[in-house]
């Protein structure tokens, strides 16, 4: 019996479908994993025998049992598929980037309102263990007033990847839209809309057609300066979270384990899920008297992508405002969208 569960369909069973969506709607007590689109290989039923596998998006959207659609297709298809789903009378959970442009984002929000449905951005990295640790430091003012924050997403992938939509010139391609959108969303969730921005993007890999390096500098009215850097050419990844304030500093490397656990087949209801190695704890330095500094190890907070699905459920069933605000998406795209 489904009872009052949210009957959900996923538009793709690629990496994101297998790792970031299917395991959660399978074990979440308020969701029912009903259907998925598999255009070629039919493998979802190996793990989810109850799921219906459709050959096309159109077939899945025609299923009247489905209430919520997860749009996890290539970046440049997000707007079209989200619009189709809304017009079919479905709520939509849409992966980043929400849209290539501010204009298209406004269109989707307006369409959702007209259809009486919700469209919710999938920004799961607000629930990374390392980011949650950073947020706790800021919320509790452990470094005093923030002055400077560095957010990094470093990878070393010198070869051109196999995913065509990420490596060819098309809307929402390039590393700033791909990885930079995660960091930009984290900055906006902490400090809101920046007063001014500077943006640099470039291409360094041989034969690359899209930006594989990006840097953003966000200046806020409060005085805090946020530096966002993402690159596919970093052999030795640096600390991903470096915060300096008026009374201290906090440093933490990127060590959230959820993605690796999910890829390895762990389900999010496993007791070990989201628990990072204690050796990866963040380091806090606080000035106590003049030049005297005390050092503390900050225990990890468990990563919890399931909390995002709790938010989706509460928004649909309980009319609770969704945790990623519309303004957050508009501000994000105002930064990411290429200058006209």
Describe the structure.
It contains eleven helices and 14 strands. The relative contact order is 0.15. The protein is globular. An eight-stranded mixed sheet has the order 8-9-10-7-11-12-13-14, with helices on one face. A six-stranded parallel sheet has the order 3-2-1-4-5-6, sandwiched between helices. The N and C termini lie far apart (52 Å). It is α/β, with parallel strands linked by helices and 340 residues long. It folds into two domains: 6-122 and 307-326, NAD(P)-binding Rossmann-like Domain (Rossmann fold); 129-302, Dihydrodipicolinate Reductase, domain 2 (2-Layer Sandwich).
Q: What is this entry, summarized?
A:
It contains eleven helices and 14 strands. It has 340 residues and is of the alpha/beta class.
Set down the secondary structure blueprint:
Blueprint: E1 6-10, H1 15-27, E2 31-37, H2 44-47, E3 52-54, H3 57-61, E4 68-71, H4 78-87, E5 91-95, H5 102-115, E6 119-122, H6 129-139, E7 146-154, H7 164-167, H8 175-191, E8 196-202, E9 213-219, E10 225-231, E11 241-245, E12 248-252, H9 258-263, E13 282-289, E14 292-298, H10 306-318, H11 326-336
Parallel strand pairs: 1-2, 1-4, 2-3, 4-5, 5-6, 7-10
Antiparallel strand pairs: 7-11, 8-9, 9-10, 11-12, 12-13, 13-14
Helix pairs in contact: 4-5, 5-11, 8-11
Based on the model shown, name its key terms.
single chain, alpha/beta, Dihydrodipicolinate Reductase, domain 2, 2 domains, eight-stranded mixed beta sheet, globular
What strand order characterises the main sheet?
8-9-10-7-11-12-13-14
Integer-rounded radius of gyration: 20 Å
CATH topology of the largest domain: Dihydrodipicolinate Reductase, domain 2
- DSSP helix fraction: 25-40%
Which spans of ≥5 residues are poorly predicted at pLDDT below 50? none
Under the CATH scheme, the architecture of the largest domain is 2-Layer Sandwich
Number of strands: 14
Shape: globular
Largest beta-sheet details: 8 strands, mixed
CATH class of the largest domain: Alpha Beta
What would the average pLDDT be, to the nearest integer?
A: 95
The SSE string, one letter per element, is: EHEHEHEHEHEHEHHEEEEEHEEHH
């Amino acid at each position: 019996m489904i009872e009052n569960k949210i009957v959900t369909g996923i538009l793709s069973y690629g990496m994101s479908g297998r790792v970031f969506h299917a395991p959660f709607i399978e074990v979440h007590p308020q969701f029912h994993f009903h259907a998925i689109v598999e255009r070629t290989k039919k493998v979802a039923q190996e793990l989810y025998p109850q799921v219906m596998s459709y050959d096309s998006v159109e077939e899945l959207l025609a299923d009247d049992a489905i209430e919520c659609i997860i749009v996890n297709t290539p970046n440049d298809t997000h707007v079209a598929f989200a619009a189709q789903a809304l017009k079919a009378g479905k709520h939509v959970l849409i992966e980043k980037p929400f849209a290539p442009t501010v204009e298209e984002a406004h269109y989707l929000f307006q369409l959702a309102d007209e259809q009486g449905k919700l469209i919710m951005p999938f920004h799961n990295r607000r629930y990374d263990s390392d980011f949650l640790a950073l947020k706790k430091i800021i919320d509790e003012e452990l470094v005093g007033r923030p002055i400077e924050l560095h957010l990094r997403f470093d990878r070393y992938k010198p070869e051109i990847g196999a995913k065509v939509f990420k490596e060819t010139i098309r809307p929402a391609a390039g590393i700033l839209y791909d990885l930079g959108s995660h960091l930009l969303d984290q900055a906006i969730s902490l400090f809101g809309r920046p007063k001014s921005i500077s943006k640099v993007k470039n291409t360094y890999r041989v034969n690359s057609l899209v930006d594989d390096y990006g840097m953003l500098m966000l200046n806020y009215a409060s005085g805090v300066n946020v530096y966002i850097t993402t690159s596919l050419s970093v052999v030795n990844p640096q600390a991903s979270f470096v915060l300096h304030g008026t009374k201290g500093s906090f440093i933490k490397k990127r060590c959230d384990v959820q993605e690796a656990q999910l890829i390895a087949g762990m389900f999010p209801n496993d007791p070990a899920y989201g628990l990072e190695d204690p050796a990866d704890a963040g380091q806090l330095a606080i000035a106590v008297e003049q030049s005297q500094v005390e050092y503390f190890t900050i225990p990890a907070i468990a990563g919890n992508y399931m909390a995002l699905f709790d938010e989706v459920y509460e928004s649909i069933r309980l009319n609770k405002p969704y945790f990623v605000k519309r303004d957050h998406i508009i501000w994000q795209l105002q930064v990411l969208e290429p200058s006209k």
